[in-house]
Amino acid sequence: MTRVFLAPTAGLLIVLAAMYLEGGQIASITQLTGIMIVLGGTFTVLLAAFPWQVVRKSFRIALGRAKMPLTEDLKQAVEVFRTLGNAAVLSGIAGFLIGAIHVMEHLERSLETGMLGLGVAVSIVSLLYGVLIKLFVATPMRDAAIARISVRS
């Protein structure tokens, strides 16, 4: 369980530190609209693909809270986290496209008010959220379930 949290947390901190070293600010990647689109889309797809009980059990398995899960449960958890990662990236792309449409709809006014950069930033941050969720959440949890299957083989 510790490995599932420690390595991704370290990776995320390294990404944030690199951003800071380049003069970026953490506030520049905190966009409520983007996170709503990505999390909403991701979990909607996840719950459309799997029953809630399967999703819940998969998280318990990945976090090491399920005692001796069956191999079938582990294989199902792998699929849940594969779907979670793919849905996060696709939701990030959807957020990017929604933001781009919004920018284009208001392009003339955005140029006049200097708000064009803000609209583009929301688009790009949505894409970033999707990638980070896949990289630092879904993939480590999927790999933890795969490792548990490998130990049994």
Total count of helical runs of at least 4 residues = 6
Mean pLDDT: 86
What count of structural domains? 1
What is the radius of gyration computed over CA atoms, rounded to a whole number of angstroms?
18 Å
Number of strands: 0
**Strand/helix succession:** HHHHHH
Q: How far do the termini sit from each other?
A: 20 Å
Global morphology:
elongated
The stretches of 5 or more residues where confidence is low (pLDDT under 50) are none
Tags for this model:
153 residues, mainly alpha, elongated
Structure description:
The chain has helices at residues 2-21, 32-49, 52-62, 71-105, 107-113, 116-152. It is mostly helical and 153 residues long. The protein has one domain (2-152). Helix 2 (32-49) packs antiparallel against helix 4 and helix 3 (52-62) packs across helix 6. The radius of gyration is 18 Å and the shape is elongated. The protein starts with a helix and ends with a helix. 29% of the residues are buried. The mean pLDDT is 86.
